[in-house]
Write a structure and sequence with these properties.
Two copies of one chain form a homodimer.
Chain A (H helix, E strand, L loop, with lengths): L4 E5 H14 L3 E2 L1 E2 L1 H5 L3 H11 L3 E4 L2 H11 L4 E4 L8 H6 L3 E4 L2 H10 L6 E3 L11 H12 L6 E2 L11 H14 L6 E2 L3 H6 L7 E2 L18 E13 L4 E2 L5 E2 L4 E7 L17 E4 L2 E6 L6 E5 L9 E5 L5 H8 L3 H7 L5 E5 L1
Parallel strand pairs in A: 1-19, 2-10, 3-4, 4-5, 5-6, 6-7, 7-8, 8-9
Antiparallel strand pairs in A: 1-11, 11-14, 11-18, 12-13, 14-17, 15-16, 16-17
Helix pairs in contact in A: 1-3, 3-4, 10-11
């Protein structure tokens, strides 16, 4: 088996949801878009529903269908991209709640699915999804007459608590929703950590559930072990991998593991001088470039050739890999590859 | 439908194979690892078999099984990672040819699958996969007595024709294989372009088939169109997206498209000042950061709101996106996401 093992701790996932639920002065939902942040929407969704989540969020209607099949009837499934052309039958049959983003989407909704429930997404300043203030002012009475179960917006800078954008968006959201009866939602993980003023009626944690920053207290959800294909002795002066980017300064024991950028282990990691695997407590530096299917690792400090090496786990998490690759933990998670064997622990 | 459309031109793929076949002074195989470089191993494998390929290469035995199911009996399927512990039944039932990388793998092969065909992978200097010269010297007679259908190695710097590593690896490979009867293979796409001295008996093009560098004459295989969720007018001074990294200098029409780094559209692209989509012939700059499921684009130069925007196609290919993200076309291809609808043209 050259298949790497991605172990997903559903107990830790549920514990992270409960911890964020305790921090939320409101109902706590769960964001499971992008296939449950790459971990499998069916298993992740069921574990979160068991923990108590009743409001789920996905990016696309197609994802909502996959989640509905896993969860069955009952939990609410909200779709951030709203009602796209051609989505009516999907929204109806999977009982989804589109977050209506524009006048066009509202017209599409009432024309194709009259009487079907919908929510509203407002733009409070991020300029990415949702109705603008003027658009909302024109449609507000019509939309609210349909008793939407959620009116929401999204923060652009919630992972920087001191950023003035947070207060500006909060003010904008309050201005746009003042006096309405519908439940309101503004906060994802970062927004929960900003404090109760951001919580309103529903919070929508995503990354924190999966063990990523900005929720520093999250438990580790993901462990990734890559099998070793072979080990070799590399003499001083020899090079390793594409482009000869690494040269041995002394005799080095090198393990080649099965896994690479085709598995979402970003190639940019190979440029970081501190990128490493673990074997037990022993840190083992990555040598040279990350290939499509292979990574080479310095195992000189081990007493015998290892059978597998750990890239993600308690010793280093998704945010550490993200630092090496110049990105964020979210991208590490959602990139984790299709070739991995996924093992669920609960 | 917020699902993006990934169109894969199987005719262009087959034409690229034929073009590389004309350049090869030998039999031309095809590398279809990592799910056919992310494009679907079944469809890609069948199209290449129709074009005339008879020797296929995958990274892992599990990939070999998927390919065998698509191709049926006949074509050879070679596995670069060789014979890993637990692979025997898979190798036997799918009729795979493991490229044996080490003494350990050779012992595993002859113990668990006596008489089953295997090839040999040699390390000619990349120090990643394959037997070292001393190991090979000790095993050579035993291995060659089994009449391996292929003895191969891999070049570390073939995309840099002037790199002295190429000649060094060629010399090493010649030294290690001098006088043997078994067919030999050293060149992937880059090696084919280095010229006939590198071709031996079998070439193994990969990236060039899929339209990527270093095969500059490749036809475009991949087209990617992302649906527009909504468009909005952003006033001068307003910001867009996470971290407020982009500020409008003048009133700007902004489209939000469905697709992001969870679809393998690398987040690093968002830092490139020249990253863009296309609508027909009109180039449309990306604004701000790439989100998990969304990208924002300046559509001010269009006369009306577009329904979809093109990220990959004839106007810009995988190597252009790779430049923006500081990587190579290979990573762009193999990252292309699971949420896309894949449409095959032939």
């Amino acid at each position: 088996m050259s298949t790497a093992k991605l172990t997903i701790d559903l107990t830790a996932l549920a514990d992270n949801w409960r911890a964020l639920d305790r921090l939320s002065e409101s109902e706590t939902g769960a964001v499971v878009k992008a296939d449950g942040y790459g971990l499998g929407v069916a298993q992740v969704g069921k574990a979160l529903a068991m923990a108590g989540a009743r409001k789920f969020f996905v990016a696309q209607a197609e994802e909502g269908l996959a989640l509905r099949r896993a969860l069955g009837h009952g939990p609410e499934i909200n779709v951030f991209s709203g009602h796209m052309a051609g989505d009516a039958e999907l929204i109806r049959s999977a009982d989804l709640i589109p977050m209506i983003n524009s006048t066009d989407q509202l017209l599409r909704q009432v024309e194709t699915l009259p009487g079907h429930v919908f929510g509203i997404q407002l733009d409070s300043g991020m300029n990415r999804l949702g109705m603008e203030p003027a658009e909302w002012a024109a449609l507000r009475d019509i939309a609210l007459a349909q008793r939407p179960p959620l009116v929401m917006s999204h923060l652009a800078c919630a992972d920087e608590p001191e950023h003035p954008m947070n207060a500006a968006q909060l003010q904008s959201f309050c201005d746009m929703t003042q006096g309405i009866d519908a439940p309101r939602s503004l906060a994802a993980t970062g927004g929960i950590l900003l404090g109760p003023a951001y919580h309103f009626d529903v919070t929508r944690p995503g990354i924190g559930l999966y063990g990523g920053l900005p929720f520093a207290d999250a438990q580790t959800v993901v462990t990734l072990d890559l099998p070793v294909i072979q080990t070799r002795t590399v003499a001083a002066g020899e090079t390793i991998g594409y482009g000869n980017t690494w040269t041995a300064q002394a005799e080095t024991q090198v393990a080649t593991v099965s896994g690479g950028y085709a598995d979402g282990l970003l190639r940019a990691m190979g440029n970081a001088s501190d990128a490493a695997f673990y074997h037990g407590d022993i840190r083992l530096p990555i040598l040279g470039r990350v290939s499509m299917d292979l990574i080479t690792v310095d195992v000189s400090s081990l007493s015998e050739p290892p059978e597998s090496l750990r890239l993600l786990g308690d010793a280093q998490g998704v945010d550490t890999l993200a630092d090496w690759a110049g990105t964020i933990g979210y991208e590490i998670l959602t990139s984790l590859g299709a070739r991995f064997e996924r093992i669920y622990r609960s």
